[in-house]
């Protein structure tokens, strides 16, 4: 297993609706959910935010989620650079 990052997010546990309100996306204050932000972005940027927000919360491998976010960011940069 990889070393956990310095911000040490807590794994998502407790009461949540795993379909409509999964706890690894509902940990932000004031009832704000990750989807409240991502639905206003394009696919690549929304997915990058999603993976950043859940890093270390859905599983203990935060680095894997951050690598996925990096992949979506690289794809978005490629899309912009190609004029898409």
Task: Report on this structure.
The chain is mostly helical and 84 residues long. Helix content is 44%, strand content 0%. It has helices at 34-38, 43-54, 62-81. Helix 2 (43-54) packs antiparallel against helix 3 (62-81). The longest helix has 20 residues, at 62-81. The model has no long low-confidence stretch (mean pLDDT 80).
List the helices and strands and how they pair.
Blueprint: H1 34-38, H2 43-54, H3 62-81
Helix pairs in contact: 2-3
Quick take:
Helices cover 44% and strands 0% of the residues. The protein is mostly helical and 84 residues long.
Looking at how many chains there are and whether they match, the oligomeric state comes to single chain
Mean pLDDT: 80
Class of secondary structure makeup? mainly alpha
- Count the E strands: 0
Radius of gyration: 14 Å
User: What is the share of helical residues?
Assistant: 40-55%
Distance between the termini: 38 Å
Strand content: under 5%
What does the main sheet amount to? none
Secondary-structure element sequence?
A: HHH
What would the keywords be for this entry?
84 residues, mainly alpha, 3 helices
């Amino acid at each position: 297993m990889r070393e956990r990052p310095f911000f040490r997010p807590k794994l998502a546990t407790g009461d949540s609706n795993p379909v409509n309100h999964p706890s690894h996306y509902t940990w932000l204050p004031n009832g704000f959910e990750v989807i409240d932000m991502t639905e206003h972005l394009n696919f690549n940027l929304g997915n990058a935010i999603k993976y950043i927000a859940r890093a270390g919360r859905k599983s203990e491998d935060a680095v894997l989620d951050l690598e996925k976010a990096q992949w979506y960011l690289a794809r978005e940069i490629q899309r912009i650079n190609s004029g898409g």
